Amino acid sequence: MPRTCTVCAHEEGEAINKALSDPSRAMSKIAAEYRVSEDALSRHKANHLLPEMRDKLASDPELRGVDILAEVKSLYQRMKGHLEAVETTENWQAIKAFHSEARQDLELLAKLLGKLDERPQVNILVSPEWIAARAAVLEALAPHPEARAAVAGRLLQLEGE
CA torsion sign, 127 to 131 to 132 to 134? Predict the structure, then answer.
């Protein structure tokens, strides 16, 4: 069973969230102030703070009419334009900077459009658990050669897909 997030369960969780939202606050100082580990703060910030902040931003009246996708597209187009303009110069530092910004904007745009899948890919075929389970099934079917051959053939089909 997954553990409860110590920051979410902390009696001063709201204050911790506010502190984590402040870029000028050091993680180590927040951890010491609220007596939680830096690891717990990092996990909380990565996994729990963003949805909460997203909800707060969504309820912000100044941001209600903003088309995020259009804004990101606009940013990408502007950075791309700056990159194209600076590429005609020999200013490699500027080229690198605009290239980096345009790439980041393009990556964000791809995520928003669902074109970039960052979910972890797991290949169970190389996991020790699958190899052991496969061997156990085939071993158990050893007294039944026809069934063993049928199961082995089907497993090879599945593994090839």
Answer: positive
Q: How far apart are CA 46 and CA 27, in angstroms?
A: 13
Q: What's the number of CA atoms in the CB half-sphere (13 Å) around residue 55?
A: 4
Among left, alpha and beta (phi > 0; psi -120 to 50; other), residue 49 is: alpha
Domain shared by 20 and 55, yes or no: yes
Same domain, 29 and 58: yes
Burial label for 41, CB within 10 Å (0-12, 13-18, 19+), is buried
Confirm if 40 and 6 have CB atoms less than 8 A apart.
Answer: yes
Ordered DSSP codes for 64-118 = TT--HHHHHHHHHHHHHHHHHHHTTSS-HHHHHHHHHHHHHHHHHHHHHTT----
User: And the tokens for 24?
Assistant: 């000028």
Q: Which domain holds residue 99?
A: 68-112
Residue 118 lies in a domain: no
Domain count, the chain: 3
For residue range 65-80, what is the model confidence (pLDDT) as tens digits? 667 778 888 888 998 9
pTM: 0.41
